# Entry
Amino acid sequence: MSALQHHLSKLGIDFKPVWQRIYDMIIKSLISVESQMMCSTKKPNPNSSKPSNCFELLGFDILLDSDLKPWILEVNLAPSLTADSPLDFHIKSNLIVDFFNLAGIRRPLKRNGKQN
# Structure
């Protein structure tokens, strides 16, 4: 997103309204499948007697037309995290860090109480 923001700013285009339209479209897409997602999360885990937490990483492929109107091309339920280039590695490794932080997964502590 920062590359898109940088590119648009070089063209003199305010990124904020573009991002707001993308954000609104993603939220509306998630609202449209909320009931199906909730049903999936309430299914019991056959491998555990304890209640489980559930989270999903979704990949939204979005196209901006010449008027900067966003269009959803597809939503990936299991987006590829394979890195094919150094830029791809940088983007996806930061995505994974953010994903773990949002999910509340922290790096384990060493025996001396410090993080790895």
